Amino acid sequence: MNDNQNLFAALRAGFPANLDQVAIETADGPGAPLRYTWRDLERGTAMIANLLTGLLLPAGSRIAVQTEKSVEALMLYLAVLRAGYVYLPLNTAYQAAEIEYFIGNAEPAVVVCAPKNFAWISRIAFQAGTAHVFTLGDDRCGSLLERAAHCSERHTPAVRRADDLAAILYTSGTTGRSKGAMLSHGNMLSNAVMLKDYWAWQPGDVLIHALPIFHVHGLFVASHGALLNGSKMIWFGRFDPQAVIRRLAEATVFMGVPTLYVRMLAEPTLTPAACAHMRLFISGSAPLLTETFHAWRERSGHTILERYGMSETVMLTSNPYRPESARHAGTVGFPLPGVGLRIRDEHDRDCGVDEIGGIQVRGPNVFAGYWRMPEKTQEEFTADGWFKTGDVGKRDAEGYVSIVGRSKDLIISGGYNVYPAEVEGYLNDMPGVAESAVVGVPHPDFGEVGVAVVVARPGAPLDGAALLATLKQKIANFKVPKHLFVVDELPRNTMGKVQKNLLRQQHQHLHSR
User: Fold this and answer.
1) Coil, strand or helix: which one is 461?
2) Cys-Cys with 87: which of 2, 29, 112, 167 at CB 3.0–4.6 Å?
3) What is the pTM of this model?
C-alpha cells in the first residue's frame, strides 16, 4: 500500500484517466452553467496548495473558512488537504460572537471569508493573532484566487499518515461551549472507501450536489463519494426544488436532508417519469418522517435510503442498498461494515431487542477527540474505547437501528444542530430576562424547530418579538427559535430542574398541519 495516506491523494486517484471530461457543472449562480474539468480541479487545487505552502505556515496549521458555496471553495478544501494542513469549515450563518470564539479556540494561521465580511472578520482574526486573511466570493473573485493565479500548477501532495489531523468540525456545546471534533485523514478515507462499495457507486454515476459544504453531509459524504468514484457533479449553490427536479433526468444519485425531500414533494413536477434515470436517493442529518418516506415512494417510484452519522464519526449506519424493499421507514438501518455499535442502558448493560438506551460506537471512522479538550474527550469515551454518541436509540429483532432522540436535548432543525443551552445563554444575557428554556417541537418542513420560554425579571416588561429580533443579530438564523413565549415561571421538578419534557408537550402541536 502507498505510504501516503493523504486523503486528497486517495481522492485524486479516483479521477478518470481522461482529465478533460467535465467533473463539475454549475446549475445556478454567476455565469451558470460553468463547466470544470478534472484537469481544472487538478490545476486549481495545486495552485491554491502552492499558495498555502508558500506562506511557510507551521506544521498542523488550521485554515478556517467561512465562504458561500462555490466550486472554488471545494477546491480550497481539497488544496488544504493536498498541502497537508487542517481544514476548519464554518457555517455561513455564524455571526461575530460565534466566529470570535472559533478563531480564538482554533487559532487558525489562515482565515478565508466572503469579500462582504472581510472588514469584521479580518478584525477578529488579526486581533486573535491570525497571520493571513484572504477573501473568496461565489463569483470566482477574491484575494485568494488572485494570489493563487501566480502559483505553479504542479504540486506533490504532502505525505500524511492515517492518524494525521485533516479537519476540525465544531459542534455546538450542550453547555454553550462549542467543541472541535478532530477528524483524521484515515477517519474520512476509511468511511469514503467503505461507502463507495456499500452504496454501489458505479461508472457513469452523476451526483446532484445541492447541500452546503460546511458540514459532514455535503463536504465529506457527497463530495468524497463523487470524487473517489470519478463521478460528475451537478452543482447547486442553493437548493431550488423545481430546478433540482428538472435535472434529475441527467443524474443518478441525490443526497439531501429531509427538508429538501419535503420541498420537492410540494412540486407537481415530481413524478416517476422525472425520477426514471435516478439510481439512489439518500437522506440524513435529521430524522426522516415516516410520512415523508412513504409519500416519496408513492410520488417518485423510489425508496429513500436513510442513514445516520455525526460530525465526530462521519457515517455510522445505513439502510441496505439492495433490495430497496429492505429500507425500513423510521430506521437508520444497520451498522456499516467495520463499525461497531452497541446500545447501553443507564447501568451500562447491553440493551435487549427494542430496549432504549445510549448509542455507543467504535471503528476506523471514529474521531480521536475534541480539539484542546482532553477532559471532555475522556468523558465522551468509555473505558474500553467506545464513543458515547449522546444519541438514544434501539435495535429491533432484525437488527435495524432507530434513533429515538438526544440524551442532551439537541434540536436538529433542517439538518443543522441547535443546542438549547447555547441559545439560552444569549437569551439570559438580555436585559429584563430572568431565565429561559429552549425546546424542540415537531415541524413539517424542518423536522424540528426551537421554541423559547422566557421568565421576566420582576417589573421588567418583555417583548417576545423584540427578543427574537435581538437574537437574530447575535446567532445564526437556524438557531433562532421560531416562537418565544413570556411566562411567569418554568415548570420544575423537586430537585429544581426545569422539566423540558412538559414544555415540549405543551407546545408540540404548534406546527401541526
Assistant:
1) coil
2) 167
3) 0.86
Nearest in space to 148 (alpha carbons), one of 36, 55, 269:
55
Q: Produce one character per residue of 32-71: b if its CB has 16 or more CB atoms within 10 Å, e if not.
A: eebebbbebbbbbbbbbbbbbbeeebeeebbbbbbbbbbb
Q: What is the pLDDT of residue 494?
A: 47
CB 270 within 8 A of CB 255: no
DSSP E strand stretches across 178-223: 179-184, 206-209
Could you report the average pLDDT of every consecutive run of 10 residues in the chain (513 residues)? 87 98 96 97 98 98 98 98 98 92 97 98 98 97 98 98 97 68 98 98 98 95 98 97 98 94 96 98 88 95 97 97 97 98 94 94 98 96 96 94 79 86 87 92 93 94 95 94 95 70 92 76
Q: HSE (CB half, 13 Å, CA atoms) of 389? A: 29
E-strand ranges in 363-496 read 369-370, 387-395, 401-406, 411-413, 416-418, 433-443, 447-456, 483-487
CB within 8 Å of 494: residues ≥ 6 apart: none
- Given a contact cutoff of 8 angstroms between Cβ atoms, the answer to whether 257 and 211 are in contact is yes
DSSP notation for 398-421: T--EEEEEETT--EEETTEEE-HH
**HEC-encoded secondary structure of 127-182:** HCCCCEEEECCCCCCCHHHHHHCCCCCCCCCCCCCCCCEEEEEEECCCCCCCEEEE
Backbone φ/ψ region at 374: left (φ over 0), alpha (ψ -120 to 50), beta? alpha
Q: Contact 204/229 with Cβ under 8 angstroms?
A: no
Q: Which three cell numbers stand for residue 22?
A: 467535465
Task: Calculate the alpha carbon distances from 242 to 74, 251, 252, 296, 499 in Å.
Answer: 24, 15, 17, 15, 42
Strand blocks (E) in 175-225: 179-184, 206-209
Q: Quick one: cell of 58?
A: 507551521
